[in-house]
């Protein structure tokens, strides 16, 4: 038995692997970077990057970090879809508002 994490965004339902691949493709297109350029920059083959860009195989965290180092595309963004630059701390402790933490996992106060 296998479990899949599904990402729900609007009407879109996709696995985390598919969502990461989609964001990767979107970021490459927006920056006019080819998959081949990325593959060469991180020492991988065209088929290797192609399978991951298609969502057929997942990127691992070391690979995402290598992509970030080579292209400037945030590994965190590729995984989560949260754009770090657009996050603005608004809470009194510098945290973002609207975040609900499960009981017992609230951030500490000073």
Automatic annotation (TrEMBL):
Positions of the HTH cro/C1-type domain: 23-78
Chain positions covered by the region annotation Disordered: 84-110
InterPro entries in the cross-refs: Cro/C1-type_HTH, Lambda_DNA-bd_dom_sf
Top-level taxon of the source organism: Bacteria
Alphabetized Gene3D superfamilies for the sequence: lambda repressor-like DNA-binding domains
Database matches in SUPFAM superfamilies: lambda repressor-like DNA-binding domains (SSF47413)
Protein name per Swiss-Prot or TrEMBL: Helix-turn-helix transcriptional regulator
